[in-house]
Amino acid sequence: MTPLELGGVTVGAIVILIYLGVYIPIALTAVSFVAIWLMRDNFDLALNLLKIAVSESAMEYTFATVPLFSFMGLVVSKAGLGTDIYAVMSNAFRNVRGGIGMATVGANAGFAAVTGSSIASASVFAKVAVPEMMKYDYNPRFAVGVVAGSSVLGMIIPPSAMLIIYSFVAEQSVGEMFIAGVVPGLLLAVAYIVAIFLMGRFTPKFVGGRPAEDYVAMPWAEVASRTLPMVLLIATVIGGIYLGWMTPVEAGAAGSLLGLVIAVVRRSISWRGLWETLIETGHITAAILFLITAASIYSRMLGLAGLPNELEKLLTASDFGFVQIMVFYVILMLFLGTILDTSSIILIVVPLFLPLIEPMGLSLVWFGIVTVIGAEIGLLTPPLGISCFVIKATLDDPRITLKDVFLGALPFAGVMLIVLVAIIAFPSLTLALIN
Q1: Which string of DSSP letters, residue by residue, matches 246-261?
Q2: CA separation (Å) from 156 to 82, 235, 318, 408?
Q3: What is d(CA 262, CA 268) in angstroms, rounded to the nearest whole number?
Q4: Backbone conformation region of residue 361, classed left if phi is above 0, alpha if psi is from -120 to 50, else beta
Q5: Maximum Cα–Cα distance for the chain, whole Å?
Q6: Which end of the chain is more exposed for a tag (fewer CB within 10 A), N or C?
Q7: What is the per-residue DSSP string for 13-46?
Q8: 217: how many CB neighbours lie within 10 A of its CB?
Q9: pLDDT in tens, 201-229
């Protein structure tokens, strides 16, 4: 069996296992382990490579960012910062057509900067924003579509779990990945707001809504009290990394401490709540560690099979250029996004394409942002569309079907694709804060 045939069989086996419901790391590890065993006819070699993958993943210093940022995000959610930033944004945009939708995007962008989770954003704003928009006669599809579309900001704007996973797979700096995600994340948020404005102007029936007769301007003192904690957290974490005052691990520790202090001052967390938060942090950390370990053994299997070298030779022989490779890559991302979640796509595809991207002199940091955004579009597309399923489950409203959520999210998936093309065409958008 040639390396290309072996690679095709293993990737196909992994995708099938995941689609059948097998836990992602188990699928990756099992297929990789068996492939190494069969290739070399040496069970001990496969076992030793697995041991090395586990030890290297667990001993990596920057891995400490995972539990720290996970804990910070969970504590911040309990402190109610998502609800606060939404209240401020909603008050500011209340009298603009589609304004509550714009407020939802702005609030999601701010919330993403302290949680790094699309799922958390989807569940929080499904409860807060959708009922508010329904109250003012917004189209239900638009209401759930805005929440679904803007929830993906949590995986792009740092601290993002997906950026951390990519940094391990591609052996890139977590700090650089975080900084690189700022401009693309803000660009996507602005693109969403512009899209909502254009929808309100040219397709008013899709947006719906009416002016808020009960609008009362929020006092500046209340605006400050609701936004200051989040501003402090963002400045501490992102500002500390960008200015070089803290490493990502130190920034995560500082953000976790500050988030805990905010939750205690607001009396939004009890001893029991703190214990539950620590347990959930442990679960998230263990899951991501398992993913990274599986990715490590998978990469070793691909290298042992010689697949990256074969792909590079194939690329050279076919004389594919940058445009052709990126078109193929984006199409592959969109296709896989319909059947796999973001972490699975990163773990399966990135090790295959890194040997093709590096010889071209392209930035692997930029490539990581392209990968995450491309894979994140899958959160809004059927049949998997995790964010859409989370919103439907969170709302539990018989008036809103899963079809409504997917159709509402479709325009925002289109906006994401446009932003992705812009980032591919202009890498400086990603690297502006790094260079």
Answers
A1: S-HHHHHHHHHHHHHH
A2: 17, 17, 33, 21
A3: 9
A4: left
A5: 75
A6: C
A7: HHHHHHHTT--HHHHHHHHHHHHHHHHHT-HHHH
A8: 9
A9: 888 888 887 766 666 677 888 888 888 88
